[in-house]
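C-alpha cells in:
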C-alpha cells in the first residue's frame, strides 16, 4: 500500500480508480496532478501506457489536460484489501464527476466505498452540480447496490447516503464560492466540505450562502498555492475564513501557506507587497503585506503561529449487509 501514501495533511492515503481531467476554473491553472500525469506518461511499461493521452503540451510549453478520463480497473478494488481504518482521498489524479465519466462507472466506485465501510472516503470535485444530481437521484442507491452484488454476491446497501463518504467541492475565489456552495449544500451526504485551495482571493462564506445553507457544511480546508508558478495568498483571507468557520461551528483545517509566506531572514529569494484585494505592489506600499517566495516547507502550515487541523464530527460507518469485515472481493467476470 506504500504507493498510495500521501503527504496531504487532511487525508492518509489516495485512491485513483479514475485518472485524467480537464481545466475547469482558475484554480486549475497550476494543477499538480496535471503535471504529475504528464511525467508519468513518459515512463515506460504499464504506468506510461496508463497515463498516455491524458495530457498534451500547450503553447506555453506547459502540460495541460486533454479531457480524456480513464477508469483504472486494476485500482478499482484496492480499498477492499486495506486493513485498519483509513481516510482515503478519492481521485487525487482526476475528478470523479467529470462529464466524460459515465455514472455507471461512478456507481461501481461508490459500490466499493460502500463495501469498504471501515474506511472514510473523501470525494472532492469542481463539478458539484453533477455530483448533486447523481447522489440525489432516487435511482442511484439501487444502481450502487447492483454493483455491490457484482463484487460481493448477496451484499446490500445498509444506508443512503453512505455514512463513510464525505463529499466536497473546490472553491478558489468568491465567484466559485457563490456558484458551488449552495449546490454542495443541496447534496445528499453524511459530511459536506469545502477545499478552498488554492485560495486566490478573499472568500466570504456568508456572502455565498445563507445561515441555513452554511449549517449544512461540516468542514473547510484552506491553503495557499505551491509550486514554481504559485500565486500568493494574503494571510487576511485565511484569517477571515478561520473566523467565519468559528462563528458558524464549521471545522477549520489550515493546510499551508504554500510557496509564499512571511519573509524569513536569510531565506528570502523574492519579496512582494500584496494588497488585501490581491494586487501585487512594491514592498512597503501602504496597506500592503510583505510576502516572500520561501517554498512550501519554510512558509509552513501555521496561521498566526497556530496549527488549525480540525476534522468534522462524522457518523460511524454502517457495514453493508451481507458482507464480512476484510472479506476478499469476488473476482469480476470477464
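Residues out:
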Amino acid at each position: 500500500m506504500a504507493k498510495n501514501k500521501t503527504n496531504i495533511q487532511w487525508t492518509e492515503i489516495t485512491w485513483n480508480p479514475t485518472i485524467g481531467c480537464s481545466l475547469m476554473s482558475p484554480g486549475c491553472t497550476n494543477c499538480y496532478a496535471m503535471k504529475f500525469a504528464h511525467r508519468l506518461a513518459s515512463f515506460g511499461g504499464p504506468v506510461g501506457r496508463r497515463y498516455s493521452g491524458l495530457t498534451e503540451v500547450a503553447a506555453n510549453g506547459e502540460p495541460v489536460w486533454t479531457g480524456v478520463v480513464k477508469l483504472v480497473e486494476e485500482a478499482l478494488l484496492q480499498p477492499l484489501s486495506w486493513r485498519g481504518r483509513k481516510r482515503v482521498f478519492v481521485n487525487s489524479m482526476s475528478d470523479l464527476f467529470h462529464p466524460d465519466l459515465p455514472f455507471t462507472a461512478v456507481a461501481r466506485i461508490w459500490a466499493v466505498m460502500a463495501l469498504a465501510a471501515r474506511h472514510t472516503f473523501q470525494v472532492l470535485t469542481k463539478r458539484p452540480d453533477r455530483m448533486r444530481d447523481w447522489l440525489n437521484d432516487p435511482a442511484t442507491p439501487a444502481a450502487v447496490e447492483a454493483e455491490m452484488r457484482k463484487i460481493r454476491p448477496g451484499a446490500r446497501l445498509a444506508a443512503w447516503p453512505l455514512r463513510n463518504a464525505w463529499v466536497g467541492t473546490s472553491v478558489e475565489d468568491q465567484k466559485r464560492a457563490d456558484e458551488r456552495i449552495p449546490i454542495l449544500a443541496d447534496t445528499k451526504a453524511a459530511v459536506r466540505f469545502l477545499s478552498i485551495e488554492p485560495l486566490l482571493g478573499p472568500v466570504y462564506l456568508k456572502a455565498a450562502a445563507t445561515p441555513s445553507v452554511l449549517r449544512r457544511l461540516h468542514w473547510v480546508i484552506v491553503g495557499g498555492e505551491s509550486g514554481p508558478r504559485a500565486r500568493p495568498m494574503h494571510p487576511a483571507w485565511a484569517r477571515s475564513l478561520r473566523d467565519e468557520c468559528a462563528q458558524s461551528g464549521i471545522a477549520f483545517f489550515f493546510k499551508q501557506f504554500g510557496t509564499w509566506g512571511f519573509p524569513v531572514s536569510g531565506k528570502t529569494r523574492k519579496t512582494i507587497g500584496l494588497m488585501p484585494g490581491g494586487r501585487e505592489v512594491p514592498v512597503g506600499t501602504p496597506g500592503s503585506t510583505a510576502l516572500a517566495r520561501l517554498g512550501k516547507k519554510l512558509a509552513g502550515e501555521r496561521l498566526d503561529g497556530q496549527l488549525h487541523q480540525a476534522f468534522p464530527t462524522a457518523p460511524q460507518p454502517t457495514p453493508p449487509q451481507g458482507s464480512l469485515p476484510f472479506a476478499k472481493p469476488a473476482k469480476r467476470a470477464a
